[in-house]
Amino acid sequence: MSFSFENIPRDYEELPVPVYILKGHTTGAKDGLIAAISDKFSTQYFEVVDGYFKAYLHLSKGYNSIKLKHVEGAWDANGYAAPKAGGKVYGETSMRLNCAPFEGEGTFKTPKVHLCVLLGKDSKGTFDSPRETAAYQGNGLDTAVRKLRVAGRLMQAFTLDEMAKNGLGKRCFQFVEESGLSSVSSQEEKARVQRNQIKIHVIRSSHTVAEIRDMQYAQQNKNAKDAGKLFEFALEALKSAGGDFSDDSTAHTPALAAVLILDAHWSKQKNTLLGHAALGGGTDRIKLAIFGSHGLHSWPMDWESVHRSFTDCSRLSTDEVANDCGECSSRWECLCVTLGAFLHEIGHSLGCPHEENGVMLRDYVTMDRKFVSREMYCIRTGRGQWGPVRTADEPGWNRLDAVRFLFHPAFSLSRDFGDLDFKPRLCLANQGMKIGSGVDAGPNFVAVDRDTLDVQSETGIYLVECHVGEWSRLHYEYLPKFYSGIGPQKSIRLNFSLIQKQLAPQWRNKPLHLEVLTLGCGQASVDNLGQFLVDHSSAVKISGNRLAKKGTLYGLNGGNPVSAVFPAGKAIRQIRVSHGMALDGFDVFFSDNSAVRFGNSKSHYSDFFLDQDEILVGVAIHSGAWVDGIQFITSKKTSPLYGGNGGSLHKFMIPNGASLLGFYGTMGSWCNQIGVLYG
């Protein structure tokens, strides 16, 4: 009689969150229960199906000594573990798991997610629930807080398991926590155990329940006038709450927040779910995910009821609660859909787009499979009860999500800081959530020829996605060296013909969208790579019968086309830049006192001088809707910033073997767009 494990942590591994899904096999019997007897948590039970089990262990900070016993028993009619009194013990084993949340390194502090409940200013603090469920669980604010604490741990367990499965370490985002009387376990609550647990921020909106439930703001109302309004309400409420969400606190480091709207309500009369929106994203101050409370009634209230909740086949009626997307006909299915969708929105707030599969599509409808070894009858699919549910059957995060998480500061581990390519100091400002001023995260694109693209980034490129149609069909990842990668790259060369060969045949010779991600939250794209290479590698004729290539055009607004072509063979001695808080234009003076002008000349200007042996090798552009400011990079130095520092910073360095031949762009009242001519 023995145990074997798929994923038991190594002795030296530290778990960043107090939950872990241990998967294993026991030869003692094909059924029964696994009892997890811990020195730091109440005894937990897990089902054995054909000798296979999944133990979603709740831990405490520090070393947790855990004894696993395979005992005789089953689940009672109420869905709780019922070990047989005096029953057989088929086998046992012991282990130690080390929970050591990473708080930061030096001045770097790990960003954490604030888990919040949002109520209308006149809300009674209740949520939709079947009458029978509300009778024994309650459906008030206290119940909501308890359920959210458990839900947060389930999200962490799910994500931690996925990062490890992807070979990217025992990583997970952390929630903001607080110490108090434990509510995560009914046994601990009775014993009045003190525990660190997830802090739930209870935030009041300045809007009434009626406003929150306005039909015109209901996301599932196809005729809604403003289906994103609840996102605005949540942002407003967070800012008004102050503290970590105040303007002062978020000026340099954005806050992370996940908000459950408690006043969501199913209106059978209107056949619409009101006060609900599933959205994730945010601003440069607050990264936010929001979701409604309409499925909260199905979520477990404590750790002892997790198994019950994921196996409860009780039918739900739209006379009482919403059937979200027609996939919530039973309690366990409702739990998967609503908890999984909330996790999906948190994924958006952490930088993940929709993907071809995984949580960022809708694979979370089978979220139960991550936690239980047997799936119950599913109304959605009509599939009967089956098991064992193995790792291969589980839903998960897409590989591209996992790579994004690896490079997100909220997923940092202590080992990361020994690799300066992976965690360069210039990316650690503002806890890695916002790139420091004067740093170009890029990426910047240079077309070498019709088949070759150079991609540059001052901080390092870590992911390149090649999209054909809606999804990425091929990608290149630059993992840290301690994960057998080559590390983020400051410059890479992509060959269009090689990409075509590496794509599956059905995706070749179709428009290819390139998405490139860099350290420091940098991201840029090329809409049609083949056409981009043609357009940007094709030379245009300039004065003196010379040929020049056009670099990337920075700035978004149109205007009147302008250009400034440098005369051949003349050295630059001075640049006079006209600017206020935006770039108006500049005059370039040469060694023979001749000059060319780009844009407008104004009375407010600054002069930049070059030595006789000094040449221009690049420019740094601050741009958004227009060109805010410019810096000139020479073979010896970088000029001051002329203009403002709004928008994003972009650096364009002249490729080796080429020279700066001039500038092109568009002008309005000031400079709208600017790009480099080189050859």
TrEMBL record:
Signal peptide: none annotated. InterPro entries: Jacalin-like_lectin_dom, Jacalin-like_lectin_dom_sf, Metalloproteinase_M10B, Unchr_Zn-peptidase-like. Residues 548-679 form the Jacalin-type lectin domain. It holds the Pfam family Jacalin. GO terms for cellular component: cytoplasm. PANTHER family: MIP04191P, ZINC METALLOPROTEINASE-RELATED. This is Jacalin-type lectin domain-containing protein. It comes from Dekkera bruxellensis (Brettanomyces custersii).
